[in-house]
Design brief:
Blueprint lengths: L23 H10 L6 H9 L4 E5 L5 E4 L2 H6 L3 H4 L13 H13 L4 E2 L6 E4 L5 E13 L2 E10 H36 L3 H24 L5 E2 H9 L10 E3 L5 E2 L1 H20 L9 E9 L4 E9 L12 H12 L3 E7 L2 E9 H5 L5
Parallel strand pairs: 8-10
Antiparallel strand pairs: 1-2, 1-6, 3-5, 4-5, 5-6, 7-9, 10-11, 11-13, 12-13
Helix pairs in contact: 6-7, 7-8, 7-9, 8-9, 9-10
């Protein structure tokens, strides 16, 4: 869509023009709304950042400006609406009612949602109607009061909310299933109640940290280095660092964050109980290397400086959990109980590490 290039500085009184969509009341509103926006281009950017369609109405209920989102919502080019009465966007049977709402608003012009509790309908250029939500914001300019109206398609909003609820329901079910599995398996393999309680607590805390990281990244994934640091930080020492971590600058998908965090938590917990973190001299080195040719990542956890390691006589739930978590990423795990320290090697395809799986 072609945009009209600004020719008037926002810091100077605009010249008269035949296009009402470029008149001074709009620029005066901009100066009032945000003094830092001093140019026409900045004003356009300011409006286009809104997810809603935006119009500016003068005291005669005529449209002085329409943002570009108007076209997708109403079918009108923004310049087509310049100077037109607001009623062009309202079904005929609602025009008197809408005029009454607007009159009452102008008597007490304060920012608000229009017609709270009512179903508001708008009219597209093709004659079709749809339900909308409208927020009104008054601004006083040297030329009088203007009203900025942000218009949202209520049907689109409802569909988005439905999708959001379904996604939330899906995630809650997955979370509860994970909690049940962790609790059941941890208690079932524990030697006593206290050991079981500590195991459940540690694993649920790790689960919470993984979700905190996902929330901070808006569930878009995270950097591998951040996942490693978040998982190991509670076990580190700020005075004498126990972990040495190599950063490979890899972004991983949200579906990979939880398995990796839980795996690292199991390794940390085991190191505290039996390995390099059970004394003051132990250290852990974590490296991650990408094989570009094979398109795989190899993450290695190497302990040193701890007690002499002996291979366990039974396969614990923690070991089984580490293997199950690797399977979620279509990867392979190798655990070696070297006398000088445990070595954990995780080999996973980059495709599953970085691609979000379908729900």
């Amino acid at each position: 869509m072609k945009k009209t290039k600004a020719t008037t500085s926002m810091k100077e009184p605009p010249k008269a023009t035949d296009n009402p969509a470029r008149r001074s009341d709009r620029t005066d509103w901009l100066a009032v709304a945000n003094p830092r926006l001093s140019s026409e281009d900045e004003f356009h950017g300011f409006l286009e950042e809104s997810p809603d369609a935006v119009i500016i109405i003068d005291k005669t209920s005529r449209i002085n400006f329409a943002s570009n989102r108007i076209e997708a919502m109403f079918g009108y080019l923004p310049d087509e609406l310049a100077g037109k009465p607001l009623s062009i966007l309202i079904p005929e049977r609602y025009r008197d009612l809408h005029a009454g709402h607007l009159d009452r608003f102008l008597i007490d012009p304060t920012p608000r949602m229009m017609g709270i509790g009512l179903e508001l309908h708008a009219l597209r250029k093709d004659g079709s109607e749809f339900q909308v939500e409208i927020s009104l914001s008054p601004h006083r300019t040297p030329d009088g009061l203007i009203v900025v109206a942000a218009i949202r398609d209520a049907e689109v909003t409802k569909r988005f909310q439905d999708l959001l609820l379904k996604e939330l329901h899906h995630r809650v079910k997955n979370m509860l299933a994970t909690v049940v599995a962790i609790t059941s398996q941890s208690l079932g393999s524990a030697q006593n109640l206290e050991e079981g309680r500590l195991a459940v607590e540690g694993r649920l805390v790790a689960l919470g940290r993984a979700h905190d990281l996902l929330l901070e990244s808006n569930w878009a994934g995270a950097k591998l280095i951040d996942v490693i640091h978040d998982a190991t930080e509670p076990f580190d020492n700020s005075n004498v660092r126990r972990f040495v971590v190599q950063d490979t600058h890899i972004e991983i998908a949200s579906d990979a964050v939880l398995p990796l965090t839980m795996s690292l938590n199991e390794l940390c917990t085991n190191a505290v109980k039996y390995g390099a973190l059970s004394n003051t001299t132990g250290r852990i080195n974590i490296t991650s290397i990408v094989d570009d040719k094979a398109q795989r990542l190899k993450l290695t956890w190497t302990e040193s400086g701890g007690p002499v390691v002996r291979e366990p006589t039974r396969r614990s739930f923690g070991t089984r959990l580490i293997n199950r978590l690797a399977e979620q990423l279509h990867g392979n795990v190798r655990l070696r109980y070297e006398p000088e320290g445990v070595v954990y090697e995780l080999d996973i395809p980059l495709a599953t590490l970085q691609a979000r799986r379908a729900n």
